[in-house]
Each structure stands twice: as structure tokens, then as C-alpha cells.
């Protein structure tokens, strides 16, 4: 079942764009473990926040991605940019009006 | 610029799946006005909440979709199912590690 993660990551003042650069660094490993979509963005209204929406082939694929050496290194490297504020939600996809229903 | 909306909609107790059925009803109008992705889902941890992640060709496309007669009718029909609790966030997409960066 497709799994979705929508999240916010607080950045230290002035470090948001570094965090964006970090999160958008090209990765082939993510797709290999089942990442279907990974969009990173910003909002003028929240200048110290980075936003992500992700789709994965399953919740297990998402969990497995966190164990990848590449992802672990990325998390460690991003840590000095983070304020410690996180938000968002996770859910199981059950349908789409674009695909013709649930 | 691609625009993302990630949201939560509170449903009245026991009405969540009706709300899901509503939000996943097939629509060709959404794609016509610029909807790129519209995933609807649920979570065992939050039994009275429906989750959505949406991607649009622009923030304007998203705004325009709310004016479509089809969407207005859908909003009116869904209203009796809603608890009135809403959450989530919106942002401008700046890149993806799957596409090779920002």
C-alpha cells in the first residue's frame, strides 16, 4: 500500500537554503528502495522551514530508506542546520480522483 | 512553479470513509485545471481524519480549482461529513532528489 509522508523541518535562521540543497541532492538509492515521489519546497510565509511530501511503495520501504548508509550520512550532515522543530503527518494512500477513485 | 498542498480534514465520528469516497470520486476537471497529483489516505492512528497531498502546476491553478462548479458542489456535499478540524501546510516546490536536485 502506497505510504505518504508530509513533513516540515525547521532550519536554523539563515540556513534554510542549505537544508534545501541537502535534501534535493540527487539520489538513485531512494528510488531503488521504493521512493516514488520526493518533493522539497519552501514558503515565503515560513522563511525558516523546509517542507517535504514523499510517496513510498510501502511504509516498510520508507523505514528501510532510513537505514541506507547514504541516507544516514545525509541525516548526520543535515543535523547542524536543523532547529529541532518538526511537524507533519503520515498516512496510507487509499485512492485518488485522478486515477478514478479509491 | 509547482505548488504543493498537504492537508488533514477531520471527519465526524464514523463518517471518515464516506469522506474518502467523496474525495476520491473520479474527476477529469482537476487534471484539466492543473492538478498533477492528488492522493487521499487514512491512518490507523487517527481514525477520524482524512489526509491529502496534492501537487498543482501553480498556486493559481489550485486557487482556480476551488472555483470549478464540480469542486464547489463537491465541497458543499462533503460539508455534512466534516468536524471542522483542518490542518496541514502549503509550499512552493523547489526540487527533488529523484529528479537530480533543485
Automatic annotation (TrEMBL), chains A, B:
Residues 3-91 form the ABM domain. PROSITE patterns: ABM. Pfam families: ABM. GO terms for molecular function: monooxygenase activity. Transmembrane segments: none annotated. It comes from the Bacteria. InterPro entries: ABM_dom (IPR007138), Dimeric_a/b-barrel (IPR011008). Keywords: Monooxygenase, Oxidoreductase. SUPFAM superfamilies: Dimeric alpha+beta barrel. Signal peptide: none annotated. This is Quinol monooxygenase.
Amino acid at each position: 500500500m502506497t505510504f505518504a509522508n508530509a513533513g516540515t523541518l525547521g532550519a536554523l535562521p539563515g540556513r534554510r537554503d542549505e537544508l534545501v540543497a541537502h535534501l534535493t541532492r540527487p539520489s538513485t538509492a531512494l528510488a531503488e528502495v521504493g521512493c516514488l515521489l520526493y518533493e522539497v519546497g519552501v514558503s515565503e510565509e515560513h522563511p525558516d522551514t523546509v517542507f517535504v511530501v514523499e510517496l513510498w511503495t510501502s511504509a516498510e520501504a520508507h523505514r528501510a530508506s532510513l537505514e541506507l548508509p547514504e541516507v544516514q550520512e545525509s541525516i548526520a550532515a543535515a543535523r547542524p542546520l536543523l532547529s529541532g522543530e518538526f511537524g507533519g503527518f503520515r498516512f496510507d494512500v487509499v485512492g485518488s480522483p485522478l486515477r478514478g477513485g479509491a
